[in-house]
């Protein structure tokens, strides 16, 4: 006998709309920062909160379970910033218990306001564990398949890297770049992670060495998230001369390669050109590039 469908318990979307209650909620009533998985607030964001306060209310759902009377659906970085700047309360929109899953509200709020891919990833994982299919999840929150896949790819991170992401030790953008690498290549990044020096330059060194090894083995090359085209068949070659000239290195995948589909060329152009001119220390700019990559995925889907 097949198990009951998740919808029999609680649908992804509420049957009727609900108006949230606008409140100032004491920060002491919310879960501690260690339970709020998100990138840490940047210095610029902290300055903004210090000077202007919290302009966008967080989203909470009442709960009768747990140490806190609220589940944080959206606004984890805002809560951290409010605490870091000495605030005692934070504006919030509070929804009734049982009205909607926190995971759905979290992603919907992120999509309407900005993005918090880690929050989205945790929410998607929660809904998957309840038995919902990826298609059901995407349809319920209005998220396109390219953006969805750009989030769930981070499930491929090794546990130590995943923990570092959730603790804010590595950024979303860097995590997304690392995730498609095989586990053996991710292992090579762990010493830098433990030393606190893992950055995009370190990743790129490991990635380039990995691609060079693939080329040497005839496996082709591709940037993470870009499909690898199978190498063309070559005719048999005569035996090598006693002192053959070194063969030229195969050209790497690049946006200028007209043999690639235009969608892949567009992604390569954004990745190669922008990453080449932005220093690894410019974390905020790299986050902006990651947002541009997501916008490109949406445009390609449309």
Automatic annotation (TrEMBL):
Annotated segments matching region Disordered: 234-254
Biased composition (Low complexity): 234-244
SMART domains the UniProt entry points to: ParB
InterPro entries from the UniProt entry: Chromosome_partition/occlusion, ParB/Sulfiredoxin_sf, ParB_N
SUPFAM superfamilies for this protein: KorB DNA-binding domain-like (SSF109709), ParB/Sulfiredoxin (SSF110849)
One Pfam family here: ParB_N
Superkingdom of origin: Bacteria
Domain ParB-like N-terminal: 23-111
A GO biological process held by the record: chromosome segregation
Cellular component GO terms held in the UniProt record: chromosome
PANTHER family, per database record: CHROMOSOME-PARTITIONING PROTEIN PARB-RELATED (PTHR33375)
Protein name in the entry: ParB/RepB/Spo0J family partition protein
Organism of provenance: Candidatus Viridilinea halotolerans
């Amino acid at each position: 006998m097949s198990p009951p469908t998740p919808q029999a318990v609680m649908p992804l979307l509420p049957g009727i709309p609900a108006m949230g209650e606008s409140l100032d909620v004491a920060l002491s009533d919310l879960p501690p920062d260690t339970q709020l998985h998100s990138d840490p607030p940047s210095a610029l964001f902290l300055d903004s909160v210090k000077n202007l306060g919290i302009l966008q209310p967080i989203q909470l759902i009442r709960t009768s379970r747990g140490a806190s009377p609220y589940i944080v659906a959206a606004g984890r970085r805002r809560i951290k910033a409010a605490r870091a700047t000495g605030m005692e309360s934070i504006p919030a929109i509070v929804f009734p218990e049982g009205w909607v899953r926190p995971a759905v509200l979290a992603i919907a709020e992120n999509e309407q306001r900005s993005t918090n891919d880690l929050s989205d990833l945790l929410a998607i994982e929660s809904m998957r564990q309840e038995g919902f299919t990826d298609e059901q999840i995407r349809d319920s929150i209005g998220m396109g398949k390219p953006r969805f896949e750009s989030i769930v790819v981070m499930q491929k991170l090794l546990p130590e890297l995943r923990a570092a992401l959730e603790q804010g030790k590595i950024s979303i953008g860097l995590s997304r770049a690392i995730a498609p690498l095989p586990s053996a290549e991710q292992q090579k990044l762990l010493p830098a992670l433990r030393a606190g020096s893992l950055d995009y330059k370190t990743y790129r060194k490991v990635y380039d060495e990995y691609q060079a090894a693939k080329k040497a083995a005839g496996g082709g090359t591709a940037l993470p998230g870009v499909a690898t085209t199978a190498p063309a068949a070559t005719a048999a070659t005569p035996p090598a001369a006693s002192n053959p000239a070194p063969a030229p290195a195969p050209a790497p995948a690049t946006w200028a390669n007209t043999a690639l589909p235009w969608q892949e060329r567009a992604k390569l152009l954004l990745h190669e050109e922008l990453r080449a001119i932005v220093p690894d220390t410019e974390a905020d700019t790299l986050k902006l590039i990651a947002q541009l990559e997501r916008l490109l995925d949406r445009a390609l889907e449309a």
